[in-house]
Design a protein that fits this description.
The complex is a heterodimer of chains A (about 180) and B (about 325). Chain A has about 180 residues and is α/β, with parallel strands linked by helices. Helix content of chain A is about 30%, strand content about 25%. In chain B, helix 1 crosses helix 5, helix 1 packs across helix 11 and helix 5 crosses helix 11. A five-stranded parallel sheet of chain B has the order 7-6-5-8-9. Classes of the chains: A alpha/beta (about 180), B alpha/beta (about 325).
């Protein structure tokens, strides 16, 4: 189970992305973070905290659950519906620059769902995407603006992003299917 | 998300086992909690400017109402539209049922048009079960005779949980026309499964024989039921179902069983007052209580949409 990113590297990576966000947006006045459930949420909170430190600002953070926008809903003929969890975006996204945050960018379908969901919330000035890992294999024309690490993978492999908030450890590992983990 | 009493026992991939929602009796505590948790997310959708998500896009839902209903039918219609389903409501007065068609024939004709789900209210107990045996579509029981009204009990539980953060250990007093009430039966099943302590009260003539077997405490002394209650739920006196005399007069009923400020003062200071509607003001509940600070009656109505969205969404799993 190869370790791709350890705790030290992850914290440096997040600091680097936070600096890039401040630089590329020439300030943070119109910025807001939206984390995609589940692991995009703690990543968005950490990025926002660092951006606030750098810029002395108070950038809001929202939570987005994309389940009701999935393009594979109703396409399974057996099995229970995916769990829907709370979306909480306690600010208007109109005319803001939205920083969408997720842990892994893979097919791009989650991001497509997130874009549809966000646009139902209002009309942001811009939407940018930050991810910890881009593992390739896109099925839609979607590209991240900020990437922690580009990680070439085979489709069979599993990328695990573990975070302190949800898993008690900061790390990214790459697994072959069939590997026993935890 | 709100802590739930049974969340630790939740299975790895939770879902509803049944294809239909016919009653609360058939649901497990875990399934009920799943519906309530899902309804929390649906409630947020209803607070947006654009109150619509694409989850049931392209699905057809028929609302088949053989009994008059404004609140429940409207609530289902709004829930279906918020999930982007195509909906169609059929009320009895305008349908061919008045021309003598049977329930089975009506259902088979609807079925021939391939709806994905049918929401049905009917005056006969067991009508939803019958429909579920002859139709391919998913059936949601919106009230069958004096049997069950599962989405009402779910929205009641959702409303209680939002206020009290739990259901287990609460004292819930249910007062009124127990005999004719499908809301009572669904609530007794649900509250029992989630560990609430249920008291029911009514004149002797309106207490269903053997109700204690469902695990409730029955009393003709309404004050005993209300004493230290966390929730006081009033049921409508269903005059249209009463063939015969169950009590001398509506005025006497109000005097002995109506929820007044004085009676409500016996409950816990933070008690909430509920009513599934429509209310008979001055019969089962005084106007100043119905409109008072403890009343959550209108919240129940708005929560109904979220709970019905959750049920529609969860039952749509595995549709082909």
């Amino acid at each position: 189970m190869p370790l791709v990113i350890d705790a030290v590297r992850m914290s440096r990576t997040l600091a680097r992305i936070a600096h890039e966000i401040v630089e590329r947006n020439r300030g943070v006045e119109e910025l807001a973070f939206v984390g995609i459930r589940t692991r995009g949420v703690p990543l968005a909170r950490r990025l926002a905290a660092t951006v606030n430190e750098i810029a002395g600002a108070d950038v809001p953070v929202g939570i987005l659950d994309i389940t009701l926008y999935r393009d594979d809903l109703m396409r399974h003929t057996v099995g229970p519906q995916p769990l829907v969890r709370l979306t909480d975006i306690p600010f208007s996204i109109d005319d803001r620059r939205i920083l969408l945050v997720d842990d892994v960018l893979f097919t791009g379908r989650t991001i497509r769902s997130a874009l549809d969901a966000l646009i139902d919330f209002g009309r942001p000035k811009a939407i940018q995407l930050a991810v910890m890992v881009d593992r390739g294999h896109r099925e839609l024309p979607i590209k991240a603006d900020y990437v922690g690490k580009n990680l070439p993978t085979s489709r069979r492999e599993i990328v695990n992003v573990r975070l302190q908030e949800s898993d008690g450890i900061d790390e990214v590992t790459l697994e072959e299917p069939g590997d026993h983990h935890d | 998300m709100i802590e739930t009493p049974t969340s630790t026992a939740a299975p790895a991939t939770p879902g509803l086992r049944a294809r239909h929602l016919l009653g609360i009796e058939e649901l497990s505590a875990e399934e009920i909690v799943l519906i309530l948790d899902t309804a929390e997310a649906m409630k947020e959708v209803g607070s947006r400017t654009v109150k619509k998500v694409p989850a049931l896009r392209g699905r057809t839902v028929v609302n088949l109402f053989f009994e008059p209903s404004t609140r429940t039918r409207t609530s289902f219609e709004i829930a279906e539209k918020r999930l982007s389903a195509d909906t169609l409501s059929i009320a009895v007065a305008t349908s061919s049922v008045t021309k003598g068609e049977t329930l089975v024939d009506t259902a088979l004709n609807l079925e021939a048009m391939s709806p994905d789900m049918i929401v049905m209210r009917h005056a006969s107990s067991g009508a939803a079960h019958l429909l579920s045996r002859i139709c391919h579509a998913r059936i949601i029981n919106a009230g069958d005779g004096m049997h069950e009204h599962p989405t009402q009990a779910l929205l009641d539980a959702f409303t209680i949980r939002r206020h009290k953060k739990r259901l287990a250990g609460l004292k819930v007093a249910i007062i009124g026309d127990l005999l004719h009430s499908r809301v009572l039966r669904s609530n007794v099943h649900l509250l029992g499964k989630l560990g609430a302590n249920v008291w029911v009260s009514a004149p002797r003539t309106l207490i269903p024989p053997g109700i204690e077997r469902l695990g409730v405490t029955a009393t003709t002394r309404v004050e005993d039921a209300i004493a230290d209650a966390d929730v006081v739920m009033m049921l409508r006196i269903q005059m249209e179902r009463m063939q015969g005399h169950f009590f001398p007069s509506l005025r006497e009923y109000f005097t002995l069983y109506g929820l007044t400020k004085e009676r409500l003062a016996l409950a816990r200071p933070d008690a909430i007052v509920m009513h599934p509607g429509p209310m008979n003001r001055g019969v089962e509940i005084a106007s100043d209580v119905a409109d008072g600070p403890a009343s959550v009656i209108l919240e129940q109505v708005s929560n109904g949409v979220a709970v019905r969205m959750a049920v529609l969404y969860l039952l749509a799993g595995g549709l082909d």
